[in-house]
Structures are given as C-alpha cells and as structure tokens.
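Annotated sample (chain length 123).
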Amino acid sequence: RCSCRRLGGGLVQAGGSLGLSCAASGRIFTTYDWAWFRQAPGKERDFVAGKYSGGLTSYADSVKGRFTISRDNAKNTVYLQVNSLKPEDTAVYYCALRRYPDDTWHQSGMDYWGKGTQVTVSS
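Output written by the structure step:
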C-alpha cells in the first residue's frame, strides 16, 4: 500500500541531511493522517513525526527542530526532511497511514505501513 523511497543516500555523516519520501498506491483519502516511525536495532518502533489531514504536525521531542514532515495529497506522498543528523538517528524509517484521527501517535493506531528504508549516521 505504501512504498518508501529515499531521496538521498542512506549513509550520511553526523550533521548531514537527507530526504525520505513515501508514496501510497490505491485510493488514499485526504482525510488520512500520515506519519513516520523509526526502529533502531533491538528497540521498539517509535513515532518520529505526524501530519494530520488538516495540516497540523507533531514531532517526537528528539527530532524537533531538525526533522520536517510534509505531504502532497495530489501525489499521495509524504516526505520527511531530516537535518543535523546524529548517530542516534540511525534506524529503519517507516511511513504509515491511518484512516481515523487520534490525539496520539502509536504504531498500533496506524493502518498501512511502508516497507522501511535504512538511514545510517556515522559519527
């Protein structure tokens, strides 16, 4: 339902930047919320950023000011611009969609998932 594509290289040095995109296939309503999650080795999948259908955004504290989520409804695509990368940002990044809004962001509330793309930040 979702396919992730990495705009930049998957291996970057600390302080670097890259962009991620995720396009959904099929019938995607503009009322859906988009989000990015990430999962580091041996850890749970954690929320990174969310974009409500109305335009509001939400970010994990660890990425505020460094990551930016955006969406293009005409293209059924969500983007994540990641700047000032840190080694602790190393993880597999997943895009996700949910059909119904919620005040919180948790992986159990998402309905569709992308395959994931690896981001590795070297120190």
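Annotation: DSSP finds no helices and eleven strands in the chain.
Annotation: Residues 46 and 60 are 9 Å apart (CA to CA).
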